[in-house]
Amino acid sequence: MMRKRSLVRRSAAAVAAGAAALVLAACGGDGDGSGSAGHGGHNATASPSAPASASASQGRHNAADVAFAKGMIPHHRQAVEMADLAPGRARSAEVKKLAAEIKEAQGPEIETLSGWLTAWGEEVPAEGAMDHSLHGMGGMMTDEEMSELENASGEAFDTAFLELMIKHHEGAVEMAKTEQADGAHGPATKMAGEIIASQSAEIEQMNKLLGKG
Which residue of 19, 115, 121, 143 shows the fewest CB atoms closer than 10 Å? Predict the structure, then answer.
């Protein structure tokens, strides 16, 4: 009889210990979940949703980002068009070098900006179809100014190229500052910062070449 009671007690103790372990495990799980939720997350869905949330973060954008991309693409295209004139018209080796650097920097940015618009379901500005509403805005050259540049050569081209490109760069810097202030897409605001830094440095360089620095 004593042996039976001892076995019963041991069995009850084992059951109680197992139940206590389950309760502790459950409490621990709840604690983690509530802690995670309190920090803006949900423990149960963290792992499977991580790639999607990272993708959504990269894709987050607003109207300012769209305007930046749609405005900067034709702006960059015109700068590349201006730079393409330099090899056969410029006299200064420094102007030719600067034009090559502008083309090298802005060509890839056009592709990146176009990729963003496509990913966002937005229309990429058609190549060669210049939006005339942009002329005079953001430092964009008018048709007359582009014609004058195309018809210039030697020192006259160098001077016209530098003066027009300074105005063009100043417009790009202002557009980039607007993106930095209002944009939501991280890579776009980062590009805006790079444009401000690189083109501000080129403006300083061009002013020196004009004897204004």
Answer: 121
